[in-house]
């Protein structure tokens, strides 16, 4: 029973990793690649580490797995922010479709976009 | 963060130092499974880490609220899960549904660690990524520049203000 | 059961993810893109260590996983720092 749960967690975690990798290949610019990467990578690794904790069920290794989850959850967003910032400051080219404007105008454009694209 | 201030180490109190020492000791205990022999290395490591963390403290005084943390953690977990599912949907969708935008968001949080915390937290929420934080202007990249996402940002700001016990301007 | 599943299903999925990340690493086109690929590769390899630990029952491998995640974080921060300061074109 527990083995099945461990297996399900591992599978879900591995699939999230696959999505992260697929995301960085498919997305058209740095920021979108990073967006995809940071979120799915954290969830994927958290699920794998949860599977690990559940499989071993010992205080010693379990606590280290939880500490690793906490560490990853603290550092991956920081790393993404740093890379994003350096890319932004170096003026990396954005994808052509990117709206680059003040908040109000961006929202206006987004609303228009929503009207055109009804199936979303 | 203002870089000029980093040169200056703010004075620290014994109370603060002992809190940090206790936390790092606890962390060492957790990581080594309270193995007695590990203290040969652990003792000096914990002491040095405490000194380093005092040396690298934020120049701005700040505090956090445990009740705010309790409210923040479930919110954060739920929304980062949503964020993961959201990018999963986008990355797997054959037509790649994205409408990205670079949005300049004026922060209502006061200067200090709460702003940096917000900038980092944004990275895990659905479709947002912080590109730059300069004074009160946060440049956010959005996968989908929809109104809901901007409102989400403002809600997150309220949560962070609650966590750091600061008021929004 | 877990051992078979890990070696025949989970690790192949992770290997495929690694291969995809390598594609991005090769394609670039800019340095930040490659660093993102590097970050993904690092996290996937931490995941592989964790799965291998489950498959073989070697709990101590978690130490390797946590140390590796610390080191990869530091390398990414260092890269980001130097990109911001490098004068040359990306």
Kindly describe this structure.
The complex is a heterotrimer of chains A (120), B (169) and C (90). Chain A is 81% helix and 3% strand. Chain A is mainly alpha-helical. Chain A has one domain (2-116). In chain A, helix 1 (2-26) runs antiparallel to helix 2 and helix 2 (30-56) runs antiparallel to helix 3. The model of chain A has no long low-confidence stretch (mean pLDDT 80). Chain B has 169 residues and is mainly α. The longest helix of chain B is centred in the middle third of the chain and has 27 residues, at 66-92. Chain B has helices at 14-32, 39-55, 66-92, 113-122, 147-163; strands at residues 101-106, 128-134, 137-142. Chain B contains five helices and three strands. Chain B folds into two domains: 4-55, no CATH class; 66-163, no CATH class. Chain C has one domain. Chain C has three helices and no strands. In chain C, helix 2 (31-56) packs antiparallel against helix 3. The longest helix of chain C is centred in the first third of the chain and has 26 residues, at 2-27. The chains are: A mainly alpha (120), B mainly alpha (169), C mainly alpha (90). Chains in contact: A-B, A-C. At the A-C interface, helix 1, helix 2 and helix 3 of A face helix 1, helix 2 and helix 3 of C.
How are strands sequenced across the largest beta sheet of chain B?
A: 1-3-2
Number of domains of chain C: 1
By DSSP, the count of extended strands of chain B is 3
Count of helices of chain B? 5
**Low-confidence spans of chain B:** none
Largest sheet of chain C: none
Feature tags:
heterotrimer, A: about 120 residues, mainly alpha, B: mainly alpha, three-stranded antiparallel sheet, globular
SSE map:
The complex is a heterotrimer of chains A (120), B (169) and C (90).
Chain A lengths: L1 H25 L3 H27 L2 H31 L9 E4 H14 L4
Helix pairs in contact in A: 1-2, 2-3
Chain B lengths: L13 H19 L6 H17 L10 H27 L8 E6 L6 H10 L5 E7 L2 E6 L4 H17 L6
Antiparallel strand pairs in B: 1-3, 2-3
Helix pairs in contact in B: 1-2, 3-5, 4-5
Chain C lengths: L1 H26 L3 H26 L4 H25 L5
In short:
The complex is a heterotrimer of chains A (120), B (169) and C (90). Chain B is mainly alpha-helical.
């Amino acid at each position: 029973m527990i083995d099945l749960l461990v297996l399900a967690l591992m599978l879900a975690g591995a699939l999230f990793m696959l999505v992260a990798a697929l995301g960085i290949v498919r997305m058209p610019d740095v920021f979108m690649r990073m967006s995809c990467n940071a979120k799915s990578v954290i969830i994927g690794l958290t699920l794998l580490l949860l599977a690990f904790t559940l499989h071993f069920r010992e205080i010693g290794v379990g606590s280290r797995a939880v500490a690793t989850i906490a560490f990853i959850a603290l550092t991956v967003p920081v790393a993404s922010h740093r890379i994003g910032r350096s890319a932004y400051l170096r003026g990396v080219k954005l994808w052509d479709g990117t709206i680059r404007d003040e908040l109000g105008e961006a929202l206006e454009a987004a609303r228009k976009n929503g009207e055109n694209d009804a199936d979303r | 963060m203002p870089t000029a201030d980093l040169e200056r180490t703010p004075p620290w109190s014994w109370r603060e130092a002992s809190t940090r020492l206790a936390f790092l000791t606890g962390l060492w205990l957790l990581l080594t499974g309270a193995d007695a022999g590990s203290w040969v290395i652990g003792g000096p490591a914990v002491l040095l880490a405490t000194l380093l963390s005092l040396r690298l403290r934020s120049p701005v005084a700040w505090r956090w609220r445990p009740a705010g943390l309790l409210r923040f953690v479930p919110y954060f977990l739920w929304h980062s899960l949503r964020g993961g599912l959201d990018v999963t949907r986008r990355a797997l969708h054959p037509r790649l549904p994205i409408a990205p935008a670079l949005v300049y968001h004026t922060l209502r949080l006061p200067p200090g660690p709460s702003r940096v915390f917000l900038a980092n937290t944004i990275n895990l929420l659905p479709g947002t990524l912080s590109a730059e934080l300069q004074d009160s202007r946060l440049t956010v990249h959005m996968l989908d520049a929809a109104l809901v996402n901007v409102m989400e940002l403002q809600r997150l700001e309220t949560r962070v203000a609650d966590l750091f016990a600061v008021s929004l301007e | 059961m877990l051992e078979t599943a890990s070696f025949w299903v989970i690790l192949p999925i992770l290997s495929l993810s690694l291969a995809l990340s390598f594609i991005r690493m090769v394609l670039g086109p800019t340095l930040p893109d490659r660093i993102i690929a590097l970050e993904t590769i690092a996290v996937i390899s931490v995941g592989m260590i964790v799965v291998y630990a489950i498959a073989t029952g070697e709990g101590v491998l978690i130490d390797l996983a946590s140390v590796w995640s610390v080191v990869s974080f530091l390398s990414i921060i260092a890269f980001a720092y130097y990109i911001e300061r490098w004068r040359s074109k990306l």
